[in-house]
Amino acid sequence: MKDTLGVLLAGGAGERLFPLTRDRAKPAVPFGGHYRIIDITLSNCINSGLRRVYIMTQYKALSLNRHIREGWTGIVAQELGEFFEILPPMQRTGANWYMGTADAVYQNIYSIGSEQPKYVIILSGDHIYKMDYSRMLDHHIATKAEATLATLPIAPDEVSRFGVVEVSQSGEIMGFEEKPKSTSFRSPFNPNAVDASMGIYIFNTETLLKELIADAEDPNSKHDFGHNILPNILGKKKMVAYNFVDENRQQALYWRDVGTLDAYYDANLDLCSVSPTFNLYDKHWPLRTRVRQYPPAKFVFGEPGRTGKAVNSVITAGVIISGAEVLNSVLSQDVRVNSYSEVDSSIIFSHVNIGRHCRIRRAIIDRDVQIPEGTVIGYDQVEDKRRYFVTPSGLTIVTRDRSLFENPVEPEFQQRY
């Protein structure tokens, strides 16, 4: 991995996670109470021995940049040439912001070349999974490939959400389709599945730079790896598939794109189960984040009808559950739930205060929200739609912008589905 440079794409707008991405980048959205989404990929880098990483940010990146600067840049040895470096759009090659995933890398082609790596691994900062990238690099080198794609098996009816590949028995990629409505491709290892791209690529540096330059000069290109770079090298350069090896060590492969509110909600609530699919407590594959200084969580009062307790929930530092009940929920730092309130199957971001006698169910409450005494959320969709954001599945999203509570928000919100 010393000869490898990581390029982590973290500039997506995350429109399908609106309104959680209204004021923050998608990779900066909290996950599991304690983490941000980007922490999962960055932890994979550290655990894989990948210690030179450019992080390309763009939209609403203030909180993301601060999180990386305060939590990640200091854990590598800069005196040894290691770094986690934030690269905002610098318009070095033109006047545009990043116009696609390939263009984002192309606009930083000078920075990549200055490090002189043999290999470049392209990563995304908005997926939840555990993967040892060094194994994929070993496969890339052993097969003498010029490009390697990480793949995982999916059901044929899911192909419209992925780039899918046709793989030979030897593992070489013979075909590629980006989000087709249907495909005739089938995995040579499972005739009932299709091999899908995970959006993780390893390139020989020389191959990557030449393809990026050629793509930048094509006026008809979307400047995207899936739409342009990979199809363009198909049949010209040796491109192989690498079957995803899951470090989560569960029976089923775990890889989640938490790009929609419902997928994000489900992935978080899974962490509250007795045996969650995604294991946060695995010492074999530790997950890291920026650690904020908060006091321990506290549960107070034990009177009948006024007992502070949490059941099947993830509770982080600084939380006070004061004579309230929390069930099947994820609470981020510095949350207070006051007496006689009940929070059920919900995700509460940091610095939220829930007043007395509140009832909250199937909700995501954004940071810094103050919930007035007696508020009821998640029990009356008609009333919730008048005041908050409600997904088609009935999930209620509460933001800290009080002006939104005074006007109908449903038409604008529904346009995003």
Topology, element by element:
Elements: E1 4-10, E2 30-31, E3 35-36, H1 37-48, E4 52-57, H2 62-71, E5 83-87, H3 101-106, H4 109-115, E6 119-124, E7 127-129, H5 133-142, E8 147-154, E9 163-167, E10 173-178, E11 194-204, H6 205-216, H7 225-233, E12 239-243, E13 255-257, H8 261-270, E14 298-300, E15 302-303, E16 306-307, E17 309-311, E18 314-315, E19 320-322, E20 325-327, E21 330-331, E22 336-337, E23 342-344, E24 347-348, E25 353-354, E26 359-361, E27 363-365, E28 370-371, E29 376-377, H9 381-387, E30 389-390, E31 396-398, H10 410-414
Parallel strand pairs: 1-4, 1-6, 4-5, 8-12, 14-19, 17-20, 18-21, 19-22, 20-23, 21-24, 22-25, 23-26, 24-27, 25-28, 26-29, 27-31
Antiparallel strand pairs: 2-3, 6-11, 7-13, 8-11, 9-10, 9-11, 15-16, 30-31
Describe the structure.
- This protein is α/β, with parallel strands linked by helices and 417 residues long.
- The protein has 2 domains: 4-270, Spore Coat Polysaccharide Biosynthesis Protein SpsA, Chain A, CATH 3.90.550.10; 298-414, UDP N-Acetylglucosamine Acyltransferase, domain 1 (3 Solenoid), CATH 2.160.10.
- It is built from 10 helices and 31 strands.
- Strands 1, 4, 5, 6, 8, 9, 10, 11 and 12 form a 9-stranded mixed β-sheet that branches. Strands 18-21-24-27-31-30 form a 6-stranded mixed β-sheet.
- A hairpin with a 3-residue loop joins strand 2 and strand 3 (35-36).
- The radius of gyration is 23 Å and the shape is globular.
- Mean pLDDT is 91; it is low at 402-417.
